[in-house]
Amino acid sequence: MKKNNKQKGCVLWFTGLSQSGKSTTADAVYKILKEKRKLNVERLDGDVVRQSLTKDLGFSEKDRNKNIEKVTFIAKLLSRNNVIVLASFISPYRKAREKIRKEVNNYIEVFCNCPLKICEKRDTKGFYKRARKGDIENFTGISDPYERPKNPEIELKTGKLPIEKCADTIINYLEKNKLI
Amino acid sequence: MKKNNKQKGCVLWFTGLSQSGKSTTADAVYKILKEKRKLNVERLDGDVVRQSLTKDLGFSEKDRNKNIEKVTFIAKLLSRNNVIVLASFISPYRKAREKIRKEVNNYIEVFCNCPLKICEKRDTKGFYKRARKGDIENFTGISDPYERPKNPEIELKTGKLPIEKCADTIINYLEKNKLI
Fold first, then answer.
1. Which of A84-88, B3-7, B123-127 has the lowest mean pLDDT?
2. CB burial readout A47-79, b (16+ within 10 A) else e
3. CB of A48 less than 8 A from some CB of B
4. Residue B84 lies in a domain
């Protein structure tokens, strides 16, 4: 039988531009919580979710909101069963994010604040290049807006801070707020 | 901080005709596990899921399978984080059920075996009446097949057994298999 540790369910919601470091930071936090601390943690990632749960949806505001709604449903079920959810989604619309905050247990907004210039320079998937050419529509930061969080629980300068520092900031936050 | 008990994640999958007692039995089990034993349990119910997660889907075989696929995704995430999932879906296709078995942790098929005659007599929602008239298409048992489980972990004669007995059978199974 697996050991269950004392932990509270919560949703760490990583928002930011494409290539701003959302998934990388979430993965680093996952490793610490899951492998080192043996907690119940689940990753929900934009790319993965779109391949399985919402493969019929596009990137218009309406479809993005539908996507986030379905993820919220899952995050709600997990967090109320004491699971820590690490969700990384561009989630560019403030209104949509506020809806998640109301729905789930212990919503923690993590703003991955990385300048567009740096995101575009990274461009590991070549998306920015294609978006600039006009080959991809509704691309956040280029042809679609990103509404910056006004009062995120955590803001990470992911353009200059190393991943380990970002992960530490989050772990410290969870400990300080007695979530782990 | 909530107390976490020692428990293993599993998926109790209630399958059977409409009105066969799937949801009622699952609700009774939920009460025991959640309220009495304070375990991490989650209900996934056909009607509820279709209103939130999959409201765009119909009842053709293809759409039914899509619905079940999405539910499986959630059941997988919950069960691997030590949550007990009580899922009640007609889920008439054997192949679709076998897919769930492969995907999730500790799949337990609960066949709510109630004769069609009794289900039709109950008909609290008036669905059978409408299906007989031809007002509802793809209605399991009337105009659509129900493929009976061949080797369910648990078979409940929900046509004659009282709910409490059915719930007890399930609790006993979980205890015997050291899942709670």
1. B3-7
2. eebbeebbeebebeeeebbbbbbbbbbbbbbbb
3. no
4. yes
List CB contacts of B130: < 8 A, sequence separation 6 or more.
B136
Q: Residue A5 — pLDDT band, cuts 50, 70, 90?
A: low
Of B3, B4, B78, the CB nearest to A77: B78
Asked if the structure places residue B24 within a domain, the reply is yes
B140 in a structural domain: no
The ipTM estimated for the assembled molecules is: 0.83
Please indicate, yes or no, if residue B85 is contained in any of the structural domains: yes
| pLDDT tens per residue across span A163-174 | 999 999 999 999
Number of domains in chain B: 1
Residue B50's CATH number: 3.40.50.300
CA of A56, closest CA in chain B: separation in Å?
Answer: 11
Domain that holds residue A25: 10-114+146-176
What mean pLDDT do residues B76-96 have? 96
B contact test, residue of A63, A77, A78, A79 with most B CBs within 10 A: A77
